[in-house]
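Just wondering, does anyone understand what follows?

——
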Amino acid sequence: MNQNLEILHVDENKIPKEINNGKNNMNTLMIDKFKNIINEESLHFHVSNIFGSDRKSNFKAYNFTANWIKNQLVDYGLDDVELQHIPADGKSLLSDWITPLAWDVNEATLDVVFENGENKRICDYAKLADSIIMGSKATGANGLDTTIVDIDLLDLRKDRIDGCIALTERKACDMKRVVFEAGGVGVISYFHPFPNEDQDSLFWNNCWSDRKGGWWQISSDCQILGFSISPNQGCELKKILSRGEIIQAHAKVDSKLYEGSLPFITGRIKGSSESKEEILVLSHLYEHGAHDNATGSATNLEIARAIAAGIDSGELERPERSLRFLFMAECYGTIAYAQYRQERMKKTKAAISLDGVGAKWPLNVHREADCSRSPLGPALAAVANEIYEGDQDAVVNIATVEVSDTLLSDPAIGVPTAWPHRGCKDDTWHTSLDTLDKIEPKVMKEMAIIVATTLLRFASLKVKDASYLAQLCMNQGLVNLNNKKNGIAVTETNQFILEHEKNAELNAIEMIKIFAFKNNEEDVSKEIDSLKKTFISNCDKIIKMTKDDLVIIDDVKSLFEDNEEFDKKSIFSRTLTGHISLDPLSEEDFVEAKISPRWSPWQVAGFWWIDGNRDLEEIYKNMYGEFQITLKALTKYYGVLQKHGYIKVIN
């Protein structure tokens, strides 16, 4: 950045202050009711049972969890309870995601023998399920004798390790294919996502794909052994090997890869209206951790129990819209639900994803990508701020989009989805430290109250609710504008970012109309249109402050010059919905593409902006406003998608 550019700082006192602080009588009333209906003992019961089976990290256990969830929903009086099996055969497609190959394990151990004759067991599934990598090959009944080799000292493109098992501090999945092609029989990894934390803990690994960007083991992947050990264990082995000593190993794994299933489960609290419209709460199962994500599904289950019980006792009114509760495999189950229940999805007005909601970390409320921004995020944050008032440990942030089970917010699916979480990727994430003793039942109860209160707001929207939600969005939009304005150079391109922010929040305010009912949609529409005018006026006052101080003019048109792939007036259509993985690409094509959109917010949003109407210029303006990416990066991405049939130019 040019050091001579003037940096603008806005006088906070000049920003219109006509928005309330988020407190609301209905929120307060519902919060007080849910404090009595939702209880920590029930939450602990749920989280203990889900963790108790899912921590075993195999598909037999996962199916047990699914049936337990189904039975609880029935016991709690929900209707339309269903358990739907989806393929786990390693070859079926959900969107473009190849489903995992089912895997079970009964026994898995790894013993090492040193030159001095000492024998030590460093992995034992019976004691710690995290020590075996999901998808690991079986050894046979007698086990396998081999030698450990430190591959971090080798170049496996040239060096052979025939019959040996590889030791590495890198991710096991990153080294799997290389080890296999070099003749190795397996991988022992002491990778840890938080190297400064407990060095005696170890990484849990359900990623056993052959390539970067992949995830679970699928049928076309190679099959080798996989073990996870702690950094301290790994460094000890590495030190011994560095002295030139030989370490023998005996691995015994009783496992099988097979074509199975990975169920999703849903239940409903029927609404009082005949519209068949629903609000959805979803949470993923089938991970090893108490926090990630037994807390999310336990909280989801408790919300269902509490609302059903509250309605039965007369403490709560039955909501006008039905409430649907979904439990599934992360991403795979969400995609399957959207595909298998398309007619129901058309009636689903909004969703809240629960993932990591039981730790004393700041509450981050992730909103949708700007192409589908909704009032859900500000509504959740407002309830949270009221509950957490005076709690110094509970900071509430309205955050940008993150990719996971929020994929329903793709405009082509049309279900805005917010994700509130407290510490989803904290210092226990995907490690053996993610255990029940780290969970805070008080935090889970608070999160359940936040979500339940917000659910009922959207399930029975009145005109005054629409006004309240619009004001929350207006307030957040002005905060966003001010934050983006302060500390940035006063340039035409940054003016462009501010205009984008204004329009994105306007879309969120406009979206409130979809929650109206036939008997109040006209009044809601009038109220929203009136408040939008106020919001535009307030935004323009802030943006005008920037324009008045504009000292350096850069050429916005230059943003569009670095484009050799497509004409800027190109209009695209796409063949899939949700977020894409590129799983069907060959290894060579995947390497050539040099992208992996599975967990990339900007690549997901770039796919979602394609609607068959917007041209490249309009899409890029929105993408630049949200992510400040280059046109070259976007068109290169689109080139890959076009080459492999994900999108096509239609004009």
Remarks:
- Residues 1 and 489 are 8 Å apart (CA to CA).
- The chain has a mean pLDDT of 92.
- The longest strand covers residues 102-113.
- The chain has four domains: 12-19+464-553, 38-97+263-459, 102-258, 557-649.
